[in-house]
Amino acid sequence: MKDSDKKYVADLSVIVDGGITELVSSRKLKDVAVIVPEAVVLELETEAANGQETGYKGLNELSKLREFCDDGLIDLEFVETEGRGGFAPPGPRALDPIVRGLAQRVDATLITNDKIQGSIAKSKGLSVRLHRPREEETEKSLEGLELMDYFDEATMSLHLRADTVPRAKKGTPDSMKLEPIGEEKLSSERLEQLTEEIVEVAEVHPQGFIEMDSGGASIVQLANIRIAIAKPPFSDAIEITATRPVKKTTIEDYSYSDMIENRLKQSHRGVLVAGAPGMGKSTLVQALSEFLRDSEWIVKTMEKPRDLDVSPEISQYRDLNGEMADTAEILLLTRPDYTIFDEMRQTSDFEVFADLRMSGVGLVGVVHATKAIDSLQRLVGRVELGMIPQIVDTVLHVEGGDIKKVFDVEMTVKTPSGMEQGDLSRPVIEVRDFETGSLSYEIYTFGEQVVVIPLEGQEQNRIWDFATSELEYQLGQELSFDFDLEIRSNNRVAVYVADNHVPAVLGHGGKRVDALEKKLGLHIDVRSFAERDNPSSSPAFKLKEADEYLLLNFDPSYSNEEIDILINGERVFSGAVSKKGRIKLTKDTHQAKRIRKANQDGDKITVKKL
């Protein structure tokens, strides 16, 4: 040992951030003994085994200290510590008292970059050296980060992967290209160096922090750059993805801006901003946050990670104790008018969004979704159906950097489109296109299932697409014998069973089938397999064409009867004959065209009573 009076115990923080090696390499520490607690080594070993970047970084720093020792610059000692409580590592914060205890036992100076650790050590009478780089040095460290060499003014995101040529997405969300950067492939060793440098800068930079570090996956925020690092065992090879905003917009830059401004100014709204990755969602919500701030609302954000580029007046919160629900508790105490929630993925996120909205807070939530309706469907099953319009009244779909679709969301009570009986009315969520006012989707319960029915451009109500499987499941809970199901119309089904099971389905006085009809909200015709396999055919009808209609005239004895019309054995129409023995079809419907063509071509047209 060169000087027994110059002993330094290094804690975890100053090892991981490279502070101790920086001091030795710059000769600010020389001819000294550096003592590393074994508990710190165990913690770094555990973190590295779990795929955490801080573990790898710390072990690399220990290797550098060994090289300095071999070169005669320092003495390096690894000393056992007390109070570890067995073989399990105590965790970063629990290490602090153990390290302080060692420094006191060996009468050494504690070196750390943690102000809390340093303050406590001083209060206990320990000699402390607090190492924190000056702010101007940390700014230079970001500018000098080698990762920045891959960026230019047009770069939106970098994609670096071992044994491949670096690539970058350049342009803007409405005009983006993936381009190679150079021709040289990156080695795993090169990416390891970049990763180590990123973690080191994040530890000391005032706008840098490690959002997540676990199992080979890390997320780092450096100013406005978000960096995702993946390595084995999480991924098959090491890779780095870095993204940053390249365009700052105002609300006036978007379609529907007047509508959005009016809505957000009027009252606290519930807004979903939906779009695929890279389509400009974050850029839009940044513009929305600035508009809300200019409108003299108090605006906060909830983000994980915190990467929105907003004004200093807007507070940015992340998950507290790993839970956005805890963040929401604090948020309510700050009394915001509007909160930007970026991004919502897990069920707990949507529950927090709903809770805040029902508390009266205006909310703008960001959701990954390919289509506008998909973002609304993410709420189905996570919150009560009737609450959805109270939580979300506006959906903005972003594509190519602009708002392509705006939906209004409202609740009403009515008979869903395509259902014919008034007694089938129920609460229905209507999703309307803001621009045209047309009804685009309906959301309601059908049996025990919540369904989302598209209405635009549909020739036939889409309820038939899912009704068969849902009804078969429901009836299967009630019937213990074989049955077949046939949907006759939007509000009528036929159930076929064996002859001896017909009374069991009907029940005494028809009570069982009545109960089933009430449960399912549909009329049920109970028939035997024999009736289905040997259908009776009606007499031919007479076809007559009017200006806008195709008229099918039957014998009056078929008045008020429900019938099927089949062409070459395929059903093309189900409906009821009027009191006058007539069915009137609009000429331009699919069914009318099929029947008219079949009549002209001489195809076999049969009519089956139901």
Tell me the Rg in angstroms: 35 Å
The CATH topology of the largest domain is what? Rossmann fold
Percent of residues in β-strands? 25-35%
Shape: elongated
- What is the number of strand segments? 31
Structural class: alpha/beta
Strand count, sense and barrel status of the largest sheet are: 10 strands, mixed
Q: What is the straight-line distance between the termini?
A: 102 Å
Q: Indicate the low-confidence ranges by residue numbers.
A: 84-88
CATH architecture title of the largest domain: 3-Layer(aba) Sandwich
Can you identify the CATH class of the largest domain? Alpha Beta
Overall average pLDDT: 83
Any overview of this molecule?
The protein is of the alpha/beta class and 610 residues long. It has 4 domains: 7-132, 5'-nuclease (Rossmann fold); 137-243, Beta-Lactamase (2-Layer Sandwich); 251-414, 3-Layer(aba) Sandwich (Rossmann fold), CATH 3.40.50; 542-609, no CATH class. Helix content is 32%, strand content 30%. The protein has 19 helices and 31 strands. Strands 15-14-16-17-13-18-19-20-21-22 form a 10-stranded mixed β-sheet, sandwiched between helices. Strands 8-7-6-12-11-10-9 form a 7-stranded antiparallel β-sheet, covered by helices on one side. β23 (484-489) and β24 (492-497) form a beta hairpin. The radius of gyration is 35 Å and the shape is elongated. The termini are far apart. Residues 84-88 have low confidence and may be disordered.
